[in-house]
Design brief:
Thrombin, subunit H; Pdz3 Domain; six-stranded antiparallel barrel; elongated
Length: 367
Amino acid sequence: MKKTSKKFAVIFSAIAACLLNTNLLEPANAAPAAPLALHVNLTPDEAVNIRVYKSCNRGVVNISSSAASEDIYYNLSPKEGAGSGIIISEDGLVLTNNHVVEGFSSIRVTLWDGTILPATVVGIDPDSDLAVLKVVVPRGKTLTTIPFGDSSTLEVGRRVFAIGNPFGLERTLTQGIVSSLGRTMRTENGRLIKGIIQTDAAINPGNSGGPLLDTSGKLVGINTAILSRTGQSAGIGLAIPVNVAKRIVPELIAHHRVIRPDLGILVVAPVDSGLRIIKLDPKGPAAEAGLTGPKVVVFQQGPFTFRALDVNLADVIQAIDGRTVRSVDELWTVIETKKPGQLVTLQILRGGRPMKIPVKLSVIGQA
């Protein structure tokens, strides 16, 4: 036993000496070691990613909304929605998608530090799927805003970042490139938005209303939709260009809606020669200017007299101010470039004869 104990003592002494020589063990009276300095060598791409996130993530909010159960017919539980928003002013204005907040009676905004604030709707525009909210900023709190960029400078291949709250995971950063420009997207009310940005930055449910950013940290788009058979990211995300928001947001703030010009034509049908007028607002600008839709014709068959609408007698619109229109979307695209009260010239066919008729646009809903 004594020989065995001596052998273990020798082995232990050797191990201890080895550890001491490698500085893994220190004498009890040794001075504490200085903390190990970490030298992180970032790649240029990593540095950009971190800079964009640090400068912008506090400007992204989580939006949760609900409707009281009594507001939902035959539904005992409250309806809830969730999305993202972009702080655009230090006094509490938040930009998001209309579909994130439409139809909800209670809207809450969660800031980066967990502060939950009630929000009110300043204005909504279903045609562009944009909305502006307002929160009351608590005393002593400063909000981080995200500056507007210029979406007209984007090119396919440019790197972009999305920050949002996918599946409720707050302020998540994803990156990708501009995959395509000039896409079109229909809003929930059927209106067509042109110039949509397509990106492969991962966008999932909860990202709606969040920012699409360029490498300088400026807002170039508002993440709005995904094309997917599963309802989750498939690498095709769609964002409304910030230049659309630049035009819409001031109107939502000033008028709580977008004041759009009205031509007073309710229904048209595409034909080979243009757009045939099917239905007019009888008090609208087009009717007042003398444009006509289908006319009632009377014909006799035996002893009986019949009345019927003849659509072939309706005017056919070919162009507005020299711009050819061949579809409903082209018609509204031209009209929305105009202002209420502006005079436009419609080039039409009436009975096969070309004519030009001036029409003074009014405001939608004014009649």
